[in-house]
TrEMBL record:
Record bears the keyword Membrane: yes
Location of the Glycosyltransferase 2-like domain: 5-166
Entry keywords, A to Z: Cell membrane, Glycosyltransferase, Lipopolysaccharide biosynthesis, Membrane, Transferase, Transmembrane, Transmembrane helix
Gene Ontology terms for molecular function: undecaprenyl-phosphate 4-deoxy-4-formamido-L-arabinose transferase activity
An individual GO BP term: lipopolysaccharide biosynthetic process
GO cellular component terms listed in the entry, alphabetical order: plasma membrane
Organism of this sequence: Algoriphagus sanaruensis
Record InterPro entries: Glyco_trans_2-like (IPR001173), Glycosyltransferase_2 (IPR050256), Nucleotide-diphossugar_trans (IPR029044)
Name of the protein this chain belongs to: Glycosyl transferase family 2
Regions that span the bilayer: 234-255, 275-296
Keyword set includes Transferase: yes
Pfam families xref list: Glycos_transf_2
Length: 319
């Protein structure tokens, strides 16, 4: 039986891998944990995959998956989750910014009954261009999800095995795994302050553009999550509102006409304002488009967003 699976997405991290592997193995041995480390090479263009293959020859606990191209961190985590066999699954970045010394503490918190334990980089060693948007992002995510975490996007997290076997991580959703867990029936979510270090080698792969994509993913999945079982609650309310608006405006126009006629005015002006009708039509078309978009979203969300990645090679899995 494996106690801990460490799942590590890798995109061009050749310099860090040997040091990281030695460090994790040392911690595991010191604490007597049975473990596996699963590296998912996410289409690196450097020697990362060669190095993963080399170190997996020396240690059978080290396993590797090689994607055919770069599919993103979420896909990499998803592939690792599907393969993980440990009772507790711990995710960690490959760049040595997360410390393997946190593993025993995270393992203990999950063993004591939590579904998810999320790291909190309280003293964060990243540039302001990352930390400021991140503060904003965390505030909005707390507000939308009702989950009181400070650092949703921390790469260092621990899960009960059952949790990772019951969620699919896609798009830029790696930032929102605690939400996926909660929505899928695992609400016991805890937090642990963890050490964080500046990037030693290479460069960060996440900029503002991916941040925005993540936000759009959050909005879509929040809506889909909320309305997929009862779409009428959403479409119905929106439709009613639009209908009511149209009804009130029309009633008002008719009233004006009758009132004007009764006073013998020429009322053509009031009723035939072209701008007014254009606005009305625009509103209706807008609502229709919105609704159509969401119907499409609802219909495709369950199928097409899962397991879009392709695995090319693997090492140490069936031994
Ligand atoms: N990563 C990945 N695929 C990508 C981008 C990043 O697997 O397309 C991995 C990367 O190798 C690292 C982790 O995701 O292990 C976090 O990336 P990074 O350190 O660049 O993010 P940051 O710490 O700057 O937010
Ligand atoms: Mg990093």
């Amino acid at each position: 039986m494996i106690q801990i699976s460490v799942v590590i997405p890798v995109f061009n991290e050749e310099e860090s891998l040997p040091e990281l592997t030695n460090w994790i193995s040392r911690v595991m041995q010191e604490h007597g944990f049975s473990y596996e480390i699963i590296f998912i090479n996410d289409g690196s263009t450097d020697r990362s995959w060669d190095i993963i293959q080399q170190i997996s020859e020396q240690n059978q606990c080290i396993k590797g998956l090689n994607f055919t191209r770069n599919y993103g961190k979420s896909a990499a985590l998803d592939a690792g989750f599907k393969r993980a066999e440990g009772e507790v699954v711990i995710t960690m970045d490959a760049d040595l910014q997360d410390s393997p010394d946190e593993i025993p503490g995270l393992f203990q918190m999950v063993s004591e009954g939590l579904d998810v334990v999320s790291g909190w980089k309280k003293e964060r060693h990243d540039p302001l261009s990352k930390t400021i948007p991140s503060k904003f992002f965390n505030g909005v995510t707390r507000w939308i999800s009702g989950i009181e975490l400070h650092d949703f996007n921390c790469g260092l997290k621990a899960y009960r095995k059952k949790v990772v076997k019951n969620i699919s991580v896609y798009g830029e959703m790696h930032r929102y795994i605690p939400l996926l867990a909660k929505w899928n029936g695992f609400p016991k979510i805890g937090e642990k302050v963890v050490q964080h270090r500046a990037r030693k080698y290479g460069y960060s792969k996440f900029g503002l553009e991916r941040f925005l994509n993540g936000f759009l993913d959050l909005i879509t999945v929040s809506f889909v999550h909320r309305y997929k079982k009862k779409p009428m609650h959403f479409f119905g309310s929106l439709g009613s509102l639009s209908f009511l608006g149209g009804f009130l405006i029309t009633s008002w126009l008719i009233f004006q006409k009758i009132y004007g006629l009764s006073k013998g005015e020429n009322v053509r002006e009031i009723v035939d304002q072209p701008l007014f009708f254009l606005a009305l039509v625009a509103i209706i078309i807008g609502v229709q488009l919105f609704v159509t978009g969401f119907i499409a979203e609802l219909m495709t969300s369950s199928q097409s967003k899962e397991a879009e990645y392709k695995i090319d090679e693997e090492v140490n899995f069936y031994k």
